[in-house]
Write a structure and sequence with these properties.
By secondary structure, the protein is α+β, with helices and mostly antiparallel strands. It has 31 helices and 14 strands. About 60% of the residues lie in helices and about 10% in strands. The longest helix is centred in the middle third of the chain and has 34 residues, at about 455-490.
């Protein structure tokens, strides 16, 4: 009988052990009992909170917490020194810092895991974290909780709310970084910058903030912080209707300027620019044989882009005004519509035969039909895939409204297919519009058009695969950053959060398309830039063709409609890179307009003070430098040789020639220049060399612009890398890189955008090279830099007023001037490239050119710019 009872007792013990081993962690360890928090009462805690606000877009809050745990008092103390990957370390650290708290800490950021060091009879744990006040929600970091006072809107309460160690001895310090604050309790020390509480239990440090639910840790209110109006304004702006209104203003400005430029580009052309009226013609190539063409398509995009921007702003409203299912249907339909409205199969009129309309031969109709079938077929199939996921949601295990609940694997596949289809359609729409603009503007190489005509299905397949790779890359970035976000937020949390993790992933997968569509549309200004460039090239092709047919002079510079296109391109590509200031982007529209106005002001001054402007209108029509540049360059070469011989003669190193002979030859060159102005004397300070260099390396302003764009693009590569590196050294941007779904794509797009800005900068410099004031090339570069510096100065002043450091804006401005200076100097060597045979290198040719034009001063000016860039870089790296 006793033996039977013993076996029964043994069986019960075995079952109990098995139950304990298979039970969840929360069943085995009941928080306070398993962690033995009562053994931590003899610990000492040092907690410091720092506020940093000056020169930043957001207030940064940092927490440094050090816990000294007696080894003999707490049974788990030795586990703190184990590897950070070991279960023992995680269990001990969870008990020390979290206790029974298993919530997600989504607002807390950490560089590393807490570091534990053993020192005799105690173990010291160093735990650092940080966050940013970006909104009006509650924030938690370390043992601190920061919450907004419901009554005082600009007041924030800083509460000490540790999950454990509430009965330990605490040393607390708060450094406020210049913020106005009010402290509570009885601090040991307090002044205008910080408050310190000496070693005491929490209930003796700060008063209890408010009653808490039973079983929850007490909260102790230590400080009230009053945010300055600059930071409160930024927070209020981000959560108000003014933010989307400001973004809508930017789209209204950009779309309006694009539409105005398209309408003005259809006006008659007057030759020569800034001269007496010459021959005039209608730029009919903007319209095809059926009333279609480049200008109408640009107008269509200007209207569509504004409508799409407003739609996306409605989707971004919090809470969304449209449910997930309807939003997805609208996005798929909008992407398909944008792709088909672009009609990438439409070829438009030929720039060389603008009035002939579109080519409607049987062969052309067949090409267009096959191209249309290929584009429509691929786009319709992708749209159908996305629609089938929505309509057949039950087959995939998705709920009716596509809510982000726990779903099977098939549901996740459905979310992925739906998101990829939507993103692909929008990428295809952007590509279709870009191809339409580039082809109608004559920017596409002939071999590409030939390939598109012969094998449209192959071309569409290749482009579709490329767009699919881009969409897949965006999805991979989303998935990777999701895991990083979850690991950060669920750090030291319990294992029973798997269901929450699945719901968390599904939420972002379902909204993948909206996150990336907003990002894609942010960079749709590339399309506006492509449209502006296409219209400029179309007009250039027509002007050159008409001039060749009628044996007329090529114009000096851009016509007035061309200048509007160039100014819009300048504001769009160059100006928008440094446009964010005053902690928000609501002033984009104003900034856009300021850049256009500033450039027109500089060009207005150039009409009078440019070299060719001072030569007079008659020079444009009669100088041989327009149609016979070789004679002008030959005269410039003679002028340089004569001046060089004069210098040698003054130094006593020349023989066989007298100063009178050299002076006679120089006077002869002067008479040649006067004769080209029909006996109207040009200013004495302008020489033949000045005229040759002011004309530029090419016969037409468009060719000058293309050459300068290539040079500026190359010179801008180090500048783009430096700017992106500095952006990533910022703590906030660095953290976003691994947790924001579009952060890595934004770095790639940012590099392309910077390079586009430098190329656009060079293009504008070359296009208005002959119209800019100044005899020296560096003076012309400074004139164009001044056009950007005026709005930048206003932005820097506003930054200072709102307590945001303008150093990045200043650095961008200085880099703009540096790239313009280098490009202008290189254009000088390109203008006299025929003389390279007399010099061992391009640098030697540059020195010989500027020996007569104040070489030492220009070198000093260039070195000063480099010194300013290096100084700003050092200051920014010290942050």
């Amino acid at each position: 009988m006793r033996e039977i009872r013993w076996w029964r007792l043994l069986s019960l013990v075995v079952l109990a052990v098995m139950w304990w081993g298979c039970a969840p962690a929360e069943a085995r360890q009941s928080g306070h009992d398993a962690c033995r928090e009562d053994q931590l009462d003899s610990s000492t805690v040092n907690a410091t909170i720092h506020f940093r606000q000056h020169g930043r877009h957001y207030i940064q809050v940092s927490s440094d917490m050090t816990v000294e745990v007696p080894v003999r008092e707490w049974s788990m103390a030795s586990q703190l020194t184990f590897s950070a990957e070991s279960p023992e370390y995680r269990t001990a650290m969870h008990c020390l810092l979290r206790g029974s708290d298993n919530s997600l800490h989504s607002t807390e950021w950490r560089n590393d895991d807490p570091v534990a060091t053993a020192d005799g009879d105690k173990v010291t744990v160093a735990y650092s974290s940080y966050t940013w006040i970006k909104g009006h929600g509650d924030l938690g970091l370390g043992p601190w909780k920061i919450t907004r006072d419901k009554k005082k809107k600009d007041t924030w309460e800083v509460i000490l709310r540790p999950s454990t160690l509430q009965k330990a001895r605490w040393n607390v310090m708060a450094e406020l970084g210049g913020l106005k604050f009010k402290h509570y309790g009885q601090p040991w020390f307090a002044d205008k910058t910080k408050a310190v509480w000496a070693t005491q239990p929490l209930e003796h440090l700060c008063p209890v903030a408010h009653p808490v639910r039973p079983g929850q840790p007490h909260e102790y209110r230590c400080i009230e912080v009053d945010l300055p109006w600059q930071r409160s304004l930024a927070l209020s702006w981000d959560e108000s209707l003014w933010k989307p209104a400001g973004i809508a203003t930017w789209w209204a400005f950009a779309s309006g300027v694009l539409a105005l430029a398209a309408l003005r580009a259809q006006r008659p052309y007057a030759s020569p620019a800034f001269g007496t009226p010459g021959s005039r013609w209608r730029v009919g190539g903007f319209r095809g044989g059926r009333g279609e063409g480049l200008a109408p398509s640009v107008l269509q995009w200007a209207l569509l882009s504004g409508a799409v921007a407003l739609t996306l702003l409605l989707f971004l409203h919090d809470p969304p005004l449209v449910k997930l299912r309807e939003r997805t249907l609208i996005c798929i339909a909008a992407g398909l519509t944008l792709t088909l409205v672009a009609r990438p199969w439409y070829g438009g009129a030929s720039p060389t035969a603008p009035n002939a309309g579109t080519d409607e031969s049987d062969g052309s109709k067949g090409h267009r039909r096959r191209q249309a079938y290929a584009v429509i077929g691929f786009a319709s199939v992708v749209a159908a895939i996305g629609m089938l996921v929505i309509l057949g949601h039950k087959l995939l295990g998705l709920p009716q409204g596509l809510e982000t609940k726990a779903t099977p694997l098939s549901g996740k596949v459905g979310y992925v297919l739906m998101g990829l289809a939507t993103v692909w359609l929008w990428l295809a729409a952007m590509a279709a519009w870009a191809w339409r603009f580039a082809r109608e503007g004559g920017l596409v190489p002939a071999r590409w058009i030939s390939k598109w005509d012969k094998a449209p299905v192959l071309c569409v397949t290749a482009v579709s695969a490329l767009l699919g790779m881009v969409a897949g890359g965006l999805l991979w970035c989303l998935r990777w950053t999701l895991e990083n976000q979850w690991k950060r937020a669920a750090w030291l949390s319990d294992a029973n959060l798997a269901a929450n993790h699945e719901k968390y992933v599904n939420h972002y997968l379902a909204n993948f398309s909206f996150t990336d569509l907003t990002w894609i549309y942010t960079y749709s200004w590339f399309l506006a830039g492509t449209a502006l460039l296409a219209m400029l090239h179309f007009r250039f092709t027509i002007q050159r063709t008409q001039a060749a047919r009628k044996m007329e002079n090529i114009p000096l510079g851009p016509d007035k409609p061309d200048l509007l296109l160039i100014a819009a391109l300048f504001a769009l590509s160059v100006g928008m890179r440094g446009a964010k200031f005053a902690s928000n982007n609501a002033q984009y529209g104003i900034w856009f307009a300021l850049n256009i106005i500033s450039l027109f002001a500089v060009l207005a001054a150039g009409r009078r003070w440019s070299v060719l402007g001072q030569m007079g209108d008659l020079f444009y029509m009669h100088t041989s430098g327009i149609n016979k540049r070789s004679e002008l360059l030959e005269k410039a070469h003679q002028y340089r040789n004569l001046n060089h011989q004069m210098q040698l003669l003054d130094q006593g190193r020349a023989s066989g020639v007298t100063s009178e002979q050299l002076e006679d030859q120089l006077r002869g060159l002067r008479q040649w220049l006067v004769s080209r102005c029909l006996k109207k004397n040009p200013p004495d300070q302008i020489s033949i060399l000045d005229v040759a260099l002011a004309w530029g390396p090419e016969a037409h302003w468009w060719s000058n612009a293309v050459r300068a764009a290539r040079l500026a693009f190359c010179f801008g590569v180090p500048a783009s890398v430096a700017l992106l590196y500095l952006e990533m050294t910022d703590l906030y941007n660095g953290e976003q890189l691994s947790t924001e779904p579009t952060a890595i794509p934004s770095v790639v797009a940012g590099f392309i955008a910077y390079q586009t800005a430098w190329a656009g900068l060079g293009f504008v410099l070359g296009a208005v090279w002959r119209l800019l004031p100044g005899r020296r090339s560096t003076a012309r570069a400074w004139s164009l830099a001044f056009a950007y510096a005026v709005p930048a100065l206003l932005g820097a002043l506003l930054n200072r007023y709102t307590d945001v450091a303008p150093r990045m804006l200043v650095l961008y401005s200085v880099l703009t001037l540096l790239i313009l200076t280098l490009t202008s100097l290189w254009l000088d060597t390109s203008t006299l490239s025929e003389e390279r045979q007399y010099w061992p290198s391009r640098f030697a040719l540059l020195l010989s050119i500027h020996r007569l034009r104040g070489l030492s001063g220009q070198v000093a000016w260039l070195l000063a710019q480099v010194a300013v860039v290096v100084t700003i870089l050092k200051e920014l790296l010290k942050r």
